[in-house]
Design brief:
This protein is an all-beta fold and 134 residues long. The chain has no helices and 11 strands. The protein is globular, with a radius of gyration of 15 Å.
């Protein structure tokens, strides 16, 4: 069941180690902070007409992946639901990765705080953190 989360999740966008530096910041610098908890799902892709998180790298698909929040039973509180973030690859050619592991397409993978998401051959790393994570 899709839900808007109460937790304020964010993507901190970095450049992968050993990539060519650009004018927008060097290796290890935060390039962008994306607030990704204002809606129940975010489409990631090159098609700027429909993507919630647009990406420009040519190795990425027009509709590459989706971040979705799902309400699932809370194992710590029986009878209650907990809204958790999940990532799904939408059949992309060059893949979606969590902590370096390629995802199977059309399958939800639960994300945890501090997971690193990479897309195709892009030099960007998306680190999932919450509002008060240091």
């Amino acid at each position: 069941e899709a839900r808007v989360p109460l937790t304020r999740w964010r993507f901190y966008v970095f450049r992968k180690q050993n990539s060519v530096p650009s004018q927008k910041g060097g290796e290890g610098d935060v390039l962008e902070v994306m607030h990704v908890s204002k809606q129940s799902a975010y489409l990631i892709g090159r098609d700027r007409n429909i993507a919630d998180i647009p990406v420009d790298h040519l190795s990425l698909s027009k509709q590459h992946a989706v971040l979705q929040y799902r309400a699932t039973p809370d194992s710590d509180n029986p009878g209650k639901l907990k809204c958790r973030p999940y990532l799904m690859d939408l059949g992309s050619t060059n893949g979606t990765f969590i902590n370096g592991i390629r995802l199977e397409e059309a399958r939800y993978y639960e994300l945890k705080k501090r997971d690193v998401i990479t897309l195709g051959h892009s030099s960007r790393e998306y680190v999932l953190l919450t509002e008060n994570t240091t």
